[in-house]
Amino acid sequence: MVSSSSTRTILNLAMASAMAVFLGACGSMSLPSFSSAPSAPPEPAVAPDMPATVRAEEIAGRWGLASYQNPNDRARTEKAAQGQCKQPYVITVGPTGGVMMHLADQATPQELRLKGSPSGKNYIGPPGPVPGEQDREIVSFDGRILVTRFVDKDAATRYGNMVYVRCAPRA
Question: Which of the residues 43, 92, 102, 115 has an alpha carbon 20 to 30 A from that of 124?
Fold first, then answer.
């Protein structure tokens, strides 16, 4: 016959053995690390801002504004833009060196940046990657005529190629 004290000892040893096996299994499992080592790959470095070849002072002024979709309409659109000088679109230099202009579908102008790109293209838009969805590409600029096109396909379809013709200075 087995005494109750030896039964208790056997049960305690069985429990201790089971716990040892359980804890040994847990030790071999990989647990999340709470160390300071990064677990996700680092984000790519942001490319430094490239200066645009067009300066804010060059496009500040009073402009007649019109737009076209068909490239064959550009000459006619430039004349139409010149006719808009009686109600000019005014571009000013912003407080931090950008230009005050409207974004697509925005009623209030805000300061936008002139941004260069590795491809040599220039853009006008809010701070951020080049080209950003809210940017417009400067298609051409000769000091008197500025042509821009929105990067966003929907805005580009709705607004077309924006033609700004510099208005004569007030007499």
Answer: 43
